[in-house]
Amino acid sequence: MPGKLQTELHQTRPFESVGEEAVLNILRTAEVVQRSIAEFLKEFDLSPTQYNVLRILRGGGAAGVTCSQIGERLVTHDTDITRLLDRMEARGLIARERSSTDRRAIITRISAEGLALADSIDAPVRAMTQLRMGKFGPDALAVLITGLERVRAAFDTENSSVKAVKERKIK
Description:
Layout: H1 4-8, H2 18-42, H3 48-60, E1 65-66, H4 67-73, H5 81-90, E2 94-98, E3 106-110, H6 112-133, H7 137-155, H8 160-170
Antiparallel strand pairs: 1-3, 2-3
């Protein structure tokens, strides 16, 4: 009997391995969660990445954060952070200025308007998260978190075993 993912994808052949099915389940789940969060944030005229940037900048406080630091802290990778920040600055959600100590660096800070927006979203996001994830209970969520951390470690491109596999395929 085909698994749930196989049915969702209308796949007629079984997966090549349980590992392949697990990876595809993770990717499919991430897509479903991302789509749901994007839909939720539409009400606030924000993308998930923009909301993530607001949270990063709020955490950065008065010192602000550089573009590269934002990129390192994003939950999902964005290839054009500068353009993303341009749009957010045009909306008045952030402010940027050259660093006084390093003229090459641009420091980004959350504006009062951006802070108010981020603060206004916190409670609805917590409620949505609780509604969706609360039914699992803390023990099941702890197991899920540990499992997902192990998956990330297994796929970490800096991981030597992943590098070794790549090198064997290249040679």
